[in-house]
């Protein structure tokens, strides 16, 4: 009796070949770790709220000229008629000045507040990108190549991590300005642009080393895996192994490190500007505003609390978002 006949004791369902399509229907396609992490983030209410707040500040920075024009203010317009002989504002919050005016100058607080978001985010995002790229490349090379390359890069990492970044930043600003002819020979715009790039350099220089050490440790464990050994065996070039084979497996630590670096850089930019080694006039900056507003706190508290509140909310949102991203990529760290 044939297998396919009605009286057969072995049904068609029992045949391995005919059963394969039915079994395949019940098997779900696997998801990549990145896709799983993104699914977790979409279900995380804290991450959604924090991402919305960060997006709000990013939009403020992008559309700062439009928002200032909508209110009718300008960051460069001095209004001596709106302050008294002692420099105190004679008006508060009005339809023409939504956040009042700046003591001593009469400049519009709202315009300076929205424009102040720009340098903080520009410095933070740019330094994060540069620091991440350098850290990933150095970590990949140290972990995969080993030998003297690993020893040299590891020594450089230890050296960078041992330097005090605050003292380094304070010392570097006058040095760079002297290279450009000295602060006395530079216009305020040239000084401000110089300090902008110095800030990015300092934060990137001190930011890559920690990520490079993490990437190096991950690569040391990955380079003995079967897919890497197979790539070596068939003669795949080193750059291809680094960036096509190893790099996709390092998405989690890279994303986590970048998300946690952003709030630190926002705080660092504000702190350095507050200390006088960051951005200066005519570039508006929240840290610079805080340094000026401390002298007018009792007379005009809103002048101080506007940048303080913005920095606090932005940094807290970035930090909580970074924690959520870390938990999404590594559930073992979930609290």
TrEMBL record:
Has UniProt tagged this entry with the keyword Cell membrane?
yes
Q: What InterPro entries does the record tag this protein with? A: BP-dependent_transpt_permease, MetI-like, MetI-like_sf, OppC_N
Q: Transmembrane stretches, by residue range?
A: 46-68, 123-145, 152-176, 196-215, 246-266, 302-325
Q: Which UniProt keywords apply?
A: Cell membrane, Membrane, Transmembrane, Transmembrane helix, Transport
Lineage: superkingdom: Bacteria
Bias type Basic and acidic residues, positions: 12-25
Q: Does the keyword Transmembrane helix apply?
A: yes
A single GO BP term for this record reads: transmembrane transport
Q: Name one GO cellular component term.
A: plasma membrane
Bilayer disposition of the protein: Multi-pass membrane protein
Span list, region Disordered = 1-29
UniProt-listed Pfam families: BPD_transp_1, OppC_N
Query: Where is the protein situated, by its record's location annotation?
Result: Cell membrane
User: Domain ABC transmembrane type-1 spans what residues?
Assistant: 117-326
Using the UniProt record, give the first listed, main subcellular location.
membrane
What the entry lists under PANTHER family is as follows: D,D-DIPEPTIDE TRANSPORT SYSTEM PERMEASE PROTEIN DDPC-RELATED (PTHR43386:SF1), OLIGOPEPTIDE TRANSPORT SYSTEM PERMEASE PROTEIN APPC (PTHR43386)
Similarity-based family: Belongs to the binding-protein-dependent transport system permease family.
What name does UniProt use for this protein?
A: ABC transporter permease
Species of origin reads: Kribbella albertanoniae
Give the classification, highest ranks.
Bacteria, Bacillati, Actinomycetota, Actinomycetes, Propionibacteriales
